[in-house]
Amino acid sequence: MARSFDVIVIGAGPAGYVAALRCAQLGLNTAVIDEFLDKKAQPALGGTCLNIGCIPSKALLDSSQQYHYASTGLARHGVQVRDVELDLGAMLERKDQIVADLTGGIRQLFKANKIQWLPGHGTLHEDRRVEFSPHEGDSELLQAESVILAAGSQPMTLDAAPLDGERVVDSAGAMEFTEVPKRLGIIGAGVIGLEMGSVWNRLGSKVVLLEAMESFLATVDQQLAREAQRQLTKQGLDIRLGSRVTEVRQGKTLSVHYEDREGEHNIQVDRLIVAVGRRPRTENLAVEDAGLLIDEQGFIHVNEHCETNLPGVYAVGDAVRGPMLAHKGSEEGVMVAERLANRAGEVNYDVIPWVIYTHPEIAWVGHTEQALKSTGEPYRVGSFNFGANGRARAMDEPVGLVKVIAHDETDRILGVHILGPQASELIAEAVLAMEYAASAEDLARTVHAHPTLSEAMHEAALSVHKRALHKVN
């Protein structure tokens, strides 16, 4: 007789493992099937994000910034450091240890919550049956009352630049270089391209980013995007927009051929990162007879509560509509778990924050100014530069601004956009404000500690009504 569970989750990334934890907390007998293997070919929880994505990339971003600042910035603080040396091996070991600690932590949480972890591949069959194919051994057919599909995503490939795992790599390979490339090419100047470009630029690479789009960070508020491009260019990133790669030729170096408005060009690089986006990892997730509705791009069709077209089958995270963000997937996982336990569960998709961990950081929530212009919705804008913020000056981080957009008639906050120090942390205040339908006046009347970076948010909210105290309105 088949083993039976209340819930079977396929996928143990941020969407899947969080869904499993909440299901278990609510008393549901839960199993998780996940096929991820680390670079030692050992099963590991946490999916792409914890193992080869969000967490290791942030570790390298922080380490590389520490090295860069020790080399170039400490003297401004009166701290003289000479002969700063890079130990890339130690930097990579630190990154790997952080990953091991966090994935090990999830393993302990699974154990404490009595979640059955099944390393291997999961395939959905009819009537909420799931075929479990372990990495070694025979397959087994399991039965569930409910199934949560959290298959995640994988890097998109480019025919013109086939990966070889050594010189031409994807985002995971970009964090495993054992030496700093003298010349590094990156196809794509989106989130991943900019973050990986920042890491290796700080460590000494000459970095060229080839972006097919004519505009820089098209989904970001364009006032901030323009300033971000200016700052990143000053740091040494060579960002070439409207550049479509047509061929990569292997030789002593890599010859990357591309086209732009001025014609055909090529650059010579030692390593090449392909960072042209991600797509759902839904191949072989369900047998055809199961009848799961998946669109031509690989996304699983779901409603607002992440229910698929099949009774008792749900899907969350990168494999469904909406932004491919770990925190979005986690909240969807919690929502589904709550609803399976007959509790209220919702996700407010209008107030999901975005972050790009460059330096300065870029973070935003809600509508951009260009989007509001296109719809004709009346709005007001207030902004404040970190150059006039005392804490930012004291930190030697005076670059960037906070921008608050509010409805012209109701004053309700429609969007907040931050370019500057710790933008990833500061955006949380804006998310909370918007979750409670706050007005710009509400934010302006909230007392902020002095001196703090958050005062820039306060001043930007005041600026919406031309009341800013530390700028000319």
UniProtKB/TrEMBL annotation:
Cofactor: FAD
Catalysed reactions, as listed in the record: N(6)-[(R)-dihydrolipoyl]-L-lysyl-[protein] + NAD(+) = N(6)-[(R)-lipoyl]-L-lysyl-[protein] + NADH + H(+)
Annotated catalytic residues: H450 (proton acceptor)
Subcellular location: Cytoplasm
Paired cysteines (S-S): C49-C54
Additional information: The active site is a redox-active disulfide bond.
Entry protein name: Dihydrolipoyl dehydrogenase
Organism: Nitrococcus mobilis Nb-231
